[in-house]
Amino acid sequence: MKPSRQFFLGLCSMLTLGFLYYSGRISLRGLGYDSLYDQQGFLRKLDGVSLPLELMYKYGNLSEGACKPGFAAAKMTAIYPKFTKLAPMFLNPNYKRFFKIGDYSPPFGVKSQEKIIDILLSATKSYGLGEELDSANCKTCIVVGNGGILANRSLGPRIDEFDVVVRLNEAPVRGFERDVGSKTTMRITYPEGAIQKTERYEAQSLFVLSAFKALDFKWLRHMVFNQRLRSTDGFWKSVARYVPRDPGDMRILNPYFIQEASFKLIGLPHNKGQMGRGNIPTLGAVAITMALHNCDEVAVAGFGYNMSTPHAPLHYYEKIRMAAIKESWTHNISREKEFLLKLVKAGVIQDLTNGICSAGC
Description:
alpha/beta; sialyltransferase cstii, chain A; seven-stranded parallel beta sheet; 7 strands; 31% helix; N-acetyllactosaminide alpha-2,3-sialyltransferase activity; golgi apparatus; EC 2.4.3.6; Sialyl_trans
């Protein structure tokens, strides 16, 4: 075979191999190559990930304990180059321009729900954290999980130091301040997870709906307009019938965070963009994803289930034990833990209770 012909055949083979690789049809790891990134696009080697020199210099010159602007996003981009800080925390009147959510039905988007969302947004009239926090140059945020690992840790004062304290569902504050703090900036929930006893609500906090189904928006409409909820058909358990908040203190969480956490960051089944078995992230993972987009520094507390301790408390506020955990139809806890481990190992987020790493990262 002539040398020129051999050259062109080799070139064609290389071009074909490159096309197949970049189109995702093959993995060069099987051919002796070691990709720097895993299937989701995260850097495989997370230890010792460094930031650009200009950022290291910038953060190094800050006083000890000072908030580091853009730190979480910079760290996230270092281990996950596809990350872009583009998603607003809550839906606002311009949400239809955010094309990524228009193509999906709940929980991954707003398709077919635009009419009721417009009604809700016109009633709430507020779409941010509040003037002071929205104008802050740097925000520290903590997502407080409900795990029993919070019990007897006396982290309350530390949690209250954060600019934004995010709590989930009906986890109580009153009576547990020593361990979980007394400050609540927002409480993210869905109808079945919302506090049902009005006296358990904080004096001040934002009520944030994370909608997992179309019916959730209808439920929020009843709460916003203080209308009697005549039927609870379609909910999988009892729901709150009244939320002691003015419409101006109610928000709708951007469903993009559910979409991104599920399909991109954790890598759950796409299922043609529909809710299906094992493709819904937990509310905690959704809240962390939201914080990565909107906070400069991100911490968590009360995350992590250690199944090797079946008699440990599942939640900090009740006596149910760890052994009560059952396999979830909607969640994939093991895949989700892999995602959270990446964030902790790379220093993207700080875990105050060390529950995500368990035995250590």
